[in-house]
Amino acid sequence: MAALLLCGLSSTHAINRTELIKYAQTLKGKKGAELKKAMNPLLAPKTVLPYGSKDKGTWWGFWYTDRNPETNECYNRYSSNKFYFNGHTGMAISGMNIEHSFPKSWWGGSENNAYQDLYNLYPSDSKANSSKSNYAMGVVTNITSEDKGYDKVGSGTIDGQAGVPCWEPGDTYKGDFARSYMYMAIAYSNLKYVKTGKQTMANNDYPGMKSWATTLYIQWSKADKVNDLERARNNAVANIEGNRNLLIDFPHLAEYVWGDSTDIAFNPETSITTADDDNRYLKEPAQPVTPPSEDKYTFELADKIESGKSYLIVAQSESKYIAAKPINSKYGFLYTTDVTVNDQKQITVSSKANAFIITQQSDDKYYIVDSNNQYYYNDNRYQNFNVTSSPSATTLWTLTPNSDGTWKIVSATNHRIQYSSNYHSFGCYSSEQGTMPLLFVETETPTAIQTATLHQRQASDIRYNLGGQRVDEHYKGIVVVNGKKIIVK
Which tens digits make up the pLDDT trace of 302-319? Predict the structure, then answer.
């Protein structure tokens, strides 16, 4: 099989609509869980290249999948840095890594087909690869590093949890990576996901991927449409592995698996494709990314401690208020961000990444834990905070209200949390030499309201159903009009 597939790679074979319909014929009439199951053997590779820069290994394959044939530039989707192939030697390019966009640690790191599948592997700037780590792919709201137009790394809300480390691809490649991730969820539905992988993946046959992820990735897939570069890569990988990423070939297919069409039977014979002889998709405008309904979290000035609730640690410095942010290492000071306090002594924020959970253990003794599940203490050597992931390795704090509304928060080593205007941060000081903090406690649970768009029929509208078929003005339900989904009643 490998010898057959590897011949004739100098000219990537484009696929036409008739060939796609034949390839995907077994999917006809299926929807939701049944469709996902039927897609698995079509997406799973028939053969994979050996991982690395071995003879006819991954880097040998990248020559066909990720090279500009005119300049020999190696396409780098992770940073703005430029790299070039020096002949078709199969050797790695200096400064680049083979990046598992869907991290191998998510399934425990075993060197299986997923580990070697070119649909999951991309050449990457080494530094960007390291920065991305094995984080979930999502929306980064607190940025620690960024290469504008390419990826950014930091933290965001993942699976409902704020402050989780994650990475976000640039807008140009959001759809590419979204379709890669959804491909992996289907092609390797047999894998058991562990640790960080469980933030994105569900260890079940269906849906197999968490709903926050499928919702976001479908949205990205609509906003960043399949382009010629991605179509060419799909064809090149297909020539090598004998399989296709049908989420690229049928760009609305994910809707039938997880999205708004799970109750509609998929039909490859009528569905819109990205085949060379099907221009329907090219005429569809990209779907704009609708900002998600923004969660709002309200915190009000606290005059007592309610164990287990989330708090903002705030200082008033001159005419403004600043809130502490968690530290990103084993020790350090709490640097700050500006917040607004309204007339009702409330603070409203869109993320709880800077909130701390205060939990009572005995009498007036408490744990202080940040949104990254780090426990805070002071080791009596310096004026900084120390953090640990283990409750048994930390110490407790004493919290006492002051008459002016601030709090005296004292560690087991008799160090007090205070804000230093000189260093613009909170530290642990052995004497009273700064501003005591205010505490603001969370009072509300965020609520997001979604609305459906109703559309009055107009004779001039050209309508397609979600199967890609043109429908008349009497059709009721979800239709695509000028590239937008609407409900017609």
Answer: 999 999 999 999 999 878
Which two tokens mark 337?
A: 């961000």
Q: How far is CA 361 from the centre of its chain?
A: 36
Name the strands in the sheet holding 161-168, side by side, starting at the edge strand that comes first in the sequence. 136-137, 161-168, 152-158, 142-146
Going by C-alpha positions, the residue among 299, 301, 298, 305 that lies closest to residue 409 is 305
Long-range contacts of 364-367 (CB under 8 A, 24+ apart): 364/398, 364/399, 364/400, 365/396, 365/397, 365/398, 366/305, 366/307, 366/396, 366/397, 366/398, 366/399, 367/391, 367/394, 367/396, 367/397
C-alpha 14: how far from chain center: 31
Asked whether the CA dihedral 390, 391, 394, 398 is positive or negative, the reply is positive
DSSP 435: B
pLDDT band at 350 (very low <50, low <70, confident <90, very high): confident
CB 446 within 8 A of CB 438: no
Q: Are strands 477-481 and 385-388 parallel, antiparallel or unpaired?
A: unpaired
Tokens 């007036």, residue? Answer: 364
Q: pLDDT tens across 152-188, in order?
A: 999 999 988 888 999 999 999 999 999 999 999 999 9
Determine if the pTM surpasses 0.85. Answer: no
Instruction: Measure the CA–CA gap between 229 and 189, rounded to whole angstroms.
Output: 27
Beta bridge partners of 312: 440
Q: Please report where in the chains the tokens 């992931």 appear, as a residue.
A: 389
Q: CA–CA separation, 111 vs 115, rounded Å?
A: 5
Four-point Cα dihedral 130, 136, 137, 143, nearest 10: -70
356: three-class secondary structure by DSSP: strand
Q: Provide the 8-state DSSP code for 49.
A: P
| Mean per-residue pLDDT of the chain | 88
- DSSP state, 349? E
